[in-house]
Design a protein that fits this description.
Length: 248
């Protein structure tokens, strides 16, 4: 039975991925959310798909909570974890110049989006090693592409820096993990109709009027296809949601 851990699963893309995966009767899922008891949609799914969905407290900014989530996931999935989907993220300054950014907020964003992700891999890696598929997915952003960065000046500057750093984690650690048979990739889920996606809507409409948001359902379908199709030879690659490659 394919097994999945998905962080940030209480809303947006994460919730949509959980909903899609549960439609396949063989899938077993652990969903990480900051407050599972208050995640009504996840609790409804757990009641509907009894025995196939487990909810665990998870906060990228809390090391102890990350380690506990890995421990709880291991208890639920004693045979290992096939897919580790690092979906959770934090964006506190969507439109701000480097001259005006709040450094304290930037430090918080960096700790959550980069250091937190590294802690997740360290905590869950023993479980991934026991799994069959052995796949790690960093939900990144095309904004983290250094080559494309000059096209989006002043758009999500702090978020872009953090996603570029996360992509470097994928590129370097993913190359090492490949030797163990583990496939780690970065994946841009698209510009999606989520709370975070809407924070840049005015900028996009002004500077890139041809760009259109996609729904969480559309993004989830694409995300699942890309991670399912990814092979070991594709390890340490940067994917767009449509399966094409994004330049680093």
């Amino acid at each position: 039975m394919p097994s999945y851990f998905i962080s940030g699963a209480n809303r947006g893309i994460g919730l949509a991925v959980v909903q899609k995966l549960l439609k396949e009767p063989d899938n077993v899922i652990v969903a990480g959310a900051r407050d599972p008891s208050g995640a009504q949609a996840l609790n409804d799914l757990k009641a509907q798909y009894q025995g196939r969905l487990e909810l665990v407290p998870f906060d990228l900014g809390d090391r102890a909570m990350i380690e506990k989530a890995a421990e709880l996931t291991s208890a639920f999935l004693p045979n290992g974890l096939d897919y580790l989907i690092n979906n959770a993220a934090l964006s506190l300054q969507p439109i701000v110049t480097f001259a005006d950014l709040d450094v304290t907020l930037f430090e918080e964003e960096f700790h959550v989006n980069v250091v937190g992700q590294i802690l997740v891999i360290r905590s869950f890696l023993p479980l991934v090693r026991k799994g069959h598929e052995k796949k790690i997915v960093f939900v990144s952003s095309s904004l983290g592409s250094v080559e494309k960065a000059s096209r989006t000046p002043e758009l999500a500057n702090t978020y872009s820096v953090m996603k570029a750093a996360l992509n470097m984690v994928t590129r370097k650690w993913g190359s090492t993990l490949k030797a163990e048979g583990i496939t780690a990739i970065s994946l841009h889920p698209g510009w999606v109709e989520t709370d975070m996606g809407h924070t840049i809507e005015d900028w996009m409409n002004s500077h890139s009027p041809g760009s259109k948001m996609i729904t969480t359902d559309q993004s989830a379908d694409c995300v699942i296809k890309v991670i399912t199709d990814a092979k070991l030879e594709d390890a340490a690659a940067f994917y767009n949601y449509d399966g094409s490659r994004i330049p680093w």
